[in-house]
Design brief:
Order of helices and strands of chain A: HHEEEEEEEEEEEHE
Distance between the termini of chain B: 28 Å
Distance between the termini of chain A: 68 Å
CATH architecture of chain B: Beta Barrel
Oligomer: heterodimer
Structural class of chain A: mainly beta
Strand content of chain B: over 45%
Number of helices of chain B: 2
Strand order of the largest sheet of chain A: 1-2-3-4-5-6-7-8-9-10-11-12
Largest interface: A-B, 52 and 60 residues
Helix content of chain B: 10-25%
CATH topology of chain B: Lipocalin
Shape of chain A: elongated
Structural class of chain B: alpha+beta
Radius of gyration of chain A: 28 Å
Strand order of the largest sheet of chain B: 1-3-4-6-7-8-9-10
Number of strands of chain B: 10
Helix content of chain A: 10-25%
Number of domains of chain B: 1
CATH class of chain B: Mainly Beta
Strand content of chain A: 35-45%
Number of strands of chain A: 12
Shape of chain B: globular
Number of domains of chain A: 2
Chain lengths: 315, 186
């Protein structure tokens, strides 16, 4: 026999051996390589278009501002937010705990891509309403690397802040408009980051020299430490030349704590106001001087309309 | 040249032998349901996103299901918790059952059989050796499978926080219905 043919024969037998051995091994340990190959060729379960990344953030707010998350369809979220006074007020005011700005709000999920809300904040007795729309959703398979949402909000300050005798307060003088894009990416289980280009229109400003339009860019994120606790941070940078004078940038650091059904957010922030036009454009405090507020957001959700998917616990 | 042809023949022969196509039946439709019956809450969910194959002469099987595809639950938030906190479906997107059928049954013949499947059940990234009883109906080249079994959360390293201990059962009842047909030879 030709040596080459002999070698080839030995080689082919040698190639077969691990194959045959592998088959015996496979079935004994439930490692069905041949079946695995077939299933891998089938529609990859992970890559279906329906698989949007979930839980980029735990709550619909990062701290002060909105996150990419919407409330579920048919769910009403009753929220109570508190911002206490400044830490540097000392023991006399119990480090600011004697004073608090509060906001009550109701958020409702109309569809999985649309939520609306109304709220009332005690700072300058302001009412606000907003809509948050999902424009793009990050997918697990990476086809969409980002989630993008639009937030539009109108608020009305009902307190009279101008003390000029004879000043006629038209409704238009009380209104503010906020437009935000929320661009977020969940990088992994632990880290999610978000950018928030923001445009705010103030119908009435302090003087003619002040701009009515304020531009800001926000950045926020969360770092999940455990299944129940995440660290959060948020910063809004107002663009010089397009900002109101005498105000500083808003910075906040906090924690999300998940307690069974809901998320409790506790944090330190340089902003006392709770509506977008206040904390983004009109943050008064100077962090370096200790103008820091303790704050928290609590929410309670009520299922108003159970989506078809969730009815009777059957799809 | 002849040697090359021989080698090619060997490769084709051996690989062909390894996976006899006509012996393989594949899942064409199936549902996996589960429910947790706890004192304060009943949680139900189901998914049709099931794929699987059975090699009828080797009597081996493999089934997979996407965790994120389960629907049902009592609220959207509960579904999110299921994926995020309990199953960690980002890390462990699939549950799988892979192994061999103990009874020597000829699936190509019509009839009803009660069989035991032995293999490893992988949920939440944790493998467990399980023997699961199934009721099988073979008819006109299709195999219908029905099975009920229990999964212990502790077996798969899924912890129940004390705060929801009245709302989540440590024993999850799972029910599987699926139909397999012979894979068209390609």
């Amino acid at each position: 026999m030709n040596v080459k043919v002999l070698l080839l024969f030995i080689l082919s037998v040698a190639l077969c051996l691990p194959c045959a051995y592998g088959q015996v091994q496979d079935t004994a340990f439930g490692n069905n390589a041949d079946l695995e190959k077939i299933l891998d060729q089938q529609h990859p379960v992970k890559g279906s278009p329906g698989y949007y990344t979930s839980a980029t953030f735990k709550a619909t707010r990062i701290i002060n501002g909105h996150s990419i998350e919407n409330i579920g369809t048919g769910v009403l979220d009753f929220r109570i937010a508190h911002r206490f006074g400044q830490l540097n007020e000392g023991i006399k005011n119990l480090y600011g705990l004697d004073n608090a700005i509060t906001k009550f709000s109701f958020d409702y999920g109309i569809a999985d891509w649309l939520m609306i809300g109304v709220g009332r904040s005690s700072f300058e007795k302001e009412y606000d309403g907003y809509a948050k729309v999902k424009l793009m959703r990050q997918t697990v398979n990476g086809r969409h690397p980002l989630s993008i949402s639009y937030l539009g909000s109108i608020s009305a300050r009902t307190m009279d802040v101008v003390n000029i005798p004879g000043f006629k307060y038209y409704l238009s003088n009380r209104l503010f408009y906020v437009n935000q894009l929320l661009i977020a990416r969940k990088f992994n289980q632990h880290l999610s980051l978000q950018l928030m280009p923001t445009y705010i229109h103030y119908n009435l400003v302090a003087s003619e020299a002040e701009p009515n339009d304020v531009f800001a860019i926000g950045a926020g994120g969360r770092l999940k430490l455990s299944k129940r606790i995440a660290l959060t941070g948020e910063y809004y940078y107002t663009i010089p030349g397009h900002k109101l004078s005498g105000y500083s940038n808003s910075i906040s650091l906090g924690a999300d704590i998940e307690t069974g059904g809901h998320v409790f957010q506790i944090f330190f922030t340089s902003s006392a106001g709770i509506s977008e036009r206040v904390f983004i454009g009109q943050t008064k405090g100077d962090v370096t001087k200790g103008d820091i507020h303790l704050g928290f957001n609590i929410s309670r959700v009520f299922t108003i309309v159970r989506p078809k998917e969730f009815r009777d616990g059957k799809p | 040249m002849r040697q090359l042809a021989f080698l090619l023949y060997m490769i084709v022969f051996h690989t062909g032998f390894a996976s006899g196509q006509k012996d393989i039946y594949q899942v064409t439709g199936g549902t996996i349901r589960f429910h947790s019956d706890a004192p304060l809450e009943m949680i139900k969910a189901a998914s049709k996103n099931l794929i699987g194959a059975v090699h009828v002469s080797k009597r081996t099987f493999l089934f997979r299901i996407s965790i994120a595809s389960f629907q049902g639950f009592n609220s959207p938030r509960q579904k999110e918790h299921f994926n995020e906190n309990y199953m960690e479906s980002d890390l462990f997107p699939l549950a799988a059952y892979s192994g061999k059928i103990i009874e020597d049954v000829d699936f190509t013949k019509d009839g009803e059989y009660n069989i035991r499947a032995k293999g490893k059940l992988t949920i939440h990234g944790v493998e467990r050796q399980r023997i699961i009883k199934c009721h099988i109906v073979c008819k006109d080249g299709t195999i219908s499978v029905q099975s009920d079994f229990i999964v212990l959360l502790a077996d798969h390293n899924i912890k129940i926080p004390r705060i929801v201990s009245d709302k989540l059962s440590p024993e999850i009842n799972v029910s599987v219905n699926l139909v397999l047909v012979q894979k068209p030879s390609s």
